[in-house]
Amino acid sequence: FLITTIPITHLLSLLLSLMQLRKACTLFNMHRAQCVIKAASSAGNRFACRPGDIRYFAKMVDIAGLKVDENLISVVEKDIAPGTGIEPSKFWASFAEAVKEFGPRTKQLLEKRDVIQSKIDVWHQERRGKPLDMVEYKAFLQSIGYLVPEGPSFAVTTANVDPEIATVAGPQLVCPIDNARFILNAANARWGSLLDALYGTDVIDEADGAAKGSSYNPVRGAKVFAMVHKVLSDTFPLTAGDYGGAAAFELRDGRLAVVPKAGGPAAGLRSPEQFVGYTAAPDGSLTSVLLRNRGLHVEIQIDRNSAVGKGHAAGVKDVVLESALTAIADCEDSVAAVDGQDKAACYRSWAGLMRGTLTADILKAGRPVARGLNPDRVWASPAGPGAPPVVLPGRAVLLVRNVGIHLYTDAVTTADGAPIPEHILDAFLTSFGSLLDFRPAPGAARTRNSRSGSSYIVRPKMHGPEEVAMACDLFASVEKALAMPPLTIKMGIMDEERRMSVNLKEALRVSASRVAFINTGFLDRTGDEIHTSMEAGPFPTKADLRKQIWLKAYEDNNVDVGLSCGLAPGHGQIGKGMWAAPDSMKQMLLEKIGHPMSGASTAWVPSPTAATLHALHYHAVDVNARQQALKGRAPARVEDILTVPAAPAGSPPPADAAAIRKELDSCAQGILGYVVRWVGQGVGCSKVPDADDVPLMEDRATCRISSQLLANWLRHGVVTEPEVLEAFHRMAAVVDRQNAGDPRYGPMAPSFTSIEFRAALDLVLAGRAAANGYTEFGLVAKRREFKAGPRPKL
User: Fold this and answer.
1) Is the pLDDT of residue 20 over 90?
2) Catalytic pick from 699, 700, 704, 762?
3) CB of 569 within 8 A of CB of 627?
């Protein structure tokens, strides 16, 4: 009635007024949000590390005395709780009690970090220009509680650990949990094609007509098979001849027979027990052969009619390796989760993995295809028709990495609006999701993660045994709230902070019934090395830092402690860090064998392809034997770990002017290349070209090193602030060029005023003041500012 009686001109005027009012309200909210962000981030308070209030799109729900982002309420009610037998209201009530208990405890431990760092700063300042006296230094660290007394010998007792973690050595992937396609690829990387890994990488050169090309190149394929035959012959030696001379694979009296091309009797395996399974066509001819070495499996696939198999004398179409035994679904360094919406996406993905329902669309032959978790793999047993089949997991065993205790989130706040420690939220929500692995929905297809009934949480950036003890108590609280059997949650300890390294044995002591993983993260560890001794003097370049005595002692100590406490083998993993050059697989094959040789039972790789290639190292090296041999060596000295790799304050620059400029450019370019995607696109880990256009894996750890090194050089006059600014300006243009093909990218040059540019520069200029040198505080603030949109002109 009103529409028909009001003149159209009045209706249009009213509509225009409403649209202008809506725009004005939106602009006001955006401006308000940015003002709050600016105030919080400039305060420099570690407890404001989730700064700002960008909640005009998110409703906060009052529940159990807390205010909870509606996105988290939704993910619990719709994605996690169904099928667990736990009501959401009960979950939030238990969570609220944990916040009351562990919130103050977290704050006290963080305050202790700050007090200790302040005392170390003063100690170095008072001894400016003097060489380090290790006896005096060690006594000082003991007096302030940095270095704790070491107790008697003990043994780790962690039980119900899956063999992929406890006993079998092999590669490990780390993958952002908020990207469904990536995390599914990681989970499914349990098995990988060796032929593809060799054919598609620089391991096989392209000389003499062996170019990769756009279609299968038989010349390159011949080079690939030559290497594959050698791998098989070395790993599964035959009684006569080698795999390059095979004409057929046959099953004879429960044993593998390899028929030679040259004729004569068939060869068998020198160790017949290595043949553990097979599949066959209706006519009895083998279609696959399953072999096992050091607990790892290799499948030779046979199809004489396939494009590859028809060119192989024995019809081999592929050799598939058991590759990534484990993978870490990462809620920390490789994601950019800054608010309730982002956190809910992480938890939803984890719940989908545990429920077995996570899917992602991929393009195949130009059409979208839904990819999910791979099913288990089945072979017949050579023992005969009455023997049970051989069933092996089709997926890596997944661990989940939570955030460190230094981060706070306003996705959940107290009743008065104060943010809470984010690690408490992570522990409860990821563990709640893990229940779906133990309590599957009726009739659901089983893609069991842990066959031992455990869940695995990796805890990063802990500073010694007190913080580990709090994590153990938090896990016990989670288990009680979720009606899990005690000690269901196993702990992974990242040995990536200096105070953790020198107290690692005591950290394992307080977690002796939970710990199932220790890992050296030399990237973050280097960043903490610089920040801890910021006032001692100028540090050398990153390349020279890796040559210092502390690094080898740190790496050796991690293995020594893990072995002396009986963590491995039998109760958990000893791990090593990431290969950061994902396109340099030939070099990885040459160098990364050093990790199993060091006694590590796992090491990080950047891709499923790298996992397949790194698996070759665990076939070549008997890790258990190496660990037994290493038990007899003299343990690493704490004095070596504590050796400060900096020249005394007031010393000349650590390199000549050209080397200083090159390092400054390298650090600036790496920081900018990483931060521009983190802040502008929400990408937490990515392959970033360096200053020479070589792709490298970058995450917050690499950013921490570069920003702390430049902050240290600024502090000690190695470089000046104008020099840093000039380098950032030049390198911004380089990064712009490297990202020119990305439609989502916004250039930083020539204005140098973008949020991304300012975020990167601030990491250096404010690096000395950042708690423990962490980059998260500035990155989170600027990412939230970016998500709020451009600052309006009112």
Assistant:
1) no
2) 699
3) yes
